Amino acid sequence: MNFKNLGISDNIVNILNRNSITNPTPIQQESIQIIKAGNDVIAEAQTGTGKTLAFLLPIFENISPDVNFVQALILSPTRELAIQITEEANKLKEGKNINILAAYGGKDISSQMNKLKGNIHLIIATPGRLLDHIDRKTVNLSKLKTFVLDEADQMLFMGFKNEIEAIMKELPKKRQTLCFSATMDSQVKKLAYRYMNDPSIISIKKEEITLDTIKQEVVETTDRKKLDALCAVLNEDNPFMSIIFCRTKRRVDALEQSLGERGYNCQKIHSDIQQSKRERIMKSFRNADIQYLIATDVASRGIDVSGITHVYNYDIPESTEDYIHRIGRTGRAGDEGYTCLFIDPKNENALSEIEEKIKFKIPRREINI
User: Fold this and answer.
1) Matching CATH topology for 10-203 and 214-358?
2) How far apart are CA 369 and CA 359, in angstroms?
3) For residue 205, what is the DSSP state?
4) In which band, very low, low, confident or very high, does the pLDDT at 118 lie, cut at 50, 70 and 90?
5) Mean pLDDT of all residues in the chain?
6) What does the alpha-carbon distance between residue 326 and residue 304 come to, in Å, rounded to a whole number?
7) Is 91 within 8 Å of 40 (Cβ atoms)?
8) ∠77-78-84 over CA atoms, to 5°?
C-alpha cells in the first residue's frame, strides 16, 4: 500500500517523498480514502502514529484554491500542536495557491485579523483564539466543508467542552466532521456522536510503548547528588536528541541554568516562556540544533518530534500514565529508544507503583561520580 493507491495526487506524493515519507502508517491507510470521500470519522490513534497527515492529506486533495471561503478548520488543544500541524500543512501547500491561517494565543491578533480579510482556505486554531475571532466577526465559517477536532480527549481534559460546543454552533449543519483522539472514552464518544452523521469508526491499537522498543533504566541517587548523576549519564550517553523532564517550572529553570553553566547545549520550555520564544526553541530542537530540551509535562503535551533518542526523567513523574507518556517520546516508529529515571530514597514507593503497573522491574544503572 502506498499513498498513490490511497488516491493522493502525484504532486503531494512528491512532497512527501522529499520529506522522507514513503509508506502510509496504519491510521493513514485506514482513514485517508474514507475522509477523501467526505465521510465523518471517529479515529482512535496515539500521538506519533501519523494522524496529522491522515486528515491533512485528504483535506488538501479536497480544497479548491480558486474558491474564496474557509473550507476546512482544524481545532487543536495547544498552541504547540497547532504550530506543528501548521508546519506540516505549509509543506503540503507547495505549488498550490492555498492560504492557511494559524490562529492561536500568543500571536498578534491584529495581524491575524488582517490576514483573515484575505482569501483563507484552511484555519488551524486553538479554541480560545478561534472564539475570539468569531466574537469579533473576523471569521466566517458558514460555508465550511470539513471540521477536524484533534486530540479530542486532551480538549476535554483541559476543559474546552463549552468552547467546542460554542464553535460547533457556528458551523454549517451540512459538513464533514473528523474526530481524532488518543483514547476513545465515553466523554469523547458522547461529544463526537452529538455532532456527527453516521461516522466510520477507526481504531489503531496502541503499541506497547513501555517495553518493546525502549530500553529503561533507573539511577538511584540522592537529591544532593542528582545533578552530578545526570551529568555523568549525559557524558556517557552523549545522545543525539534528548528531552529531560522536571516536575515544576522552577526545577526546569534551575536545571537549565546548572547544565548551561557546565557547558551543555540545552534550552528550557514551559508555559511561562513567551510564545514566540517557545516557537523558536521548538524549531531549533526539531532541527537538532539543541541537544537537550528541558521541559515540564504540561509544556511537552502535543510535542511530537521525530528523532528523539533519549528521555531522562530528572524528577519522577506523578503517575504511571505520565511516565508512559514521557518515555513514549523516544522509540518511535520501530526505532530503538532509551530512557533513564533518577530517583532518591523518598521516590522508592512511587517507583514500585510504576513497576507494578507496567509489570516490569526496571534495571538499575551503575554510574561513577
Assistant:
1) yes
2) 31
3) P
4) low
5) 88
6) 11
7) no
8) 110
**Span 10-203: which CATH code?**
3.40.50.300
pLDDT of residue 117: 64
pLDDT of residue 206: 58
pTM of the model: 0.63
Tell me the residue type at 133: H
What distance in Å separates the CA atoms of residue 177 and residue 199, rounded to the nearest whole number? 8
Asked if residue 154 has pLDDT above 60, the reply is: yes
> Are the CB atoms for 326 and 314 separated by under 8 Å?
no
> d(Cα 225, Cα 230) in Å, to the nearest integer?
9
Do residues 81 and 46 touch, judged by C-beta distance below 8 A? Answer: no
Strands 242-245 and 122-125: unpaired
Domain 214-358 has CATH 3.40.50.300: yes
Domain boundaries, the chain: 10-203, 214-358
Report residue 195 CA to chain centroid gap.
24
Phi, psi for residue 286 in degrees, rounded to 5: -60, -35
C-alpha grid cell for residue 82?
497547532
CA distances from 85 to 52, 74, 193, 320 (A): 7, 9, 25, 28
* Per-residue pLDDT tens over the stretch 74-94: 999 888 889 889 999 999 988
Q: In what order do the strands lie in the sheet with 100-103?
A: 100-103, 122-125, 72-75, 146-149, 176-181, 41-44, 200-203
What is the C-alpha separation between 159 and 293, in angstroms, rounded? 27
Phi-psi group of 48: left, alpha or beta (phi > 0 → left; psi -120 to 50 → alpha; rest → beta) = left
pLDDT in tens, 205-258: 655 444 678 999 999 999 999 999 999 999 999 999 999 999 999 999 999 999
Q: What is the DSSP letter of 291?
A: S
**How many Cβ atoms sit within 10 Å of the Cβ of residue 250?**
12
Is the pLDDT at 326 greater than 90, yes or no? no
Cα–Cα distance for residue pair 213/330, rounded to 1 Å: 9
* Cell matching residue 111: 495581524
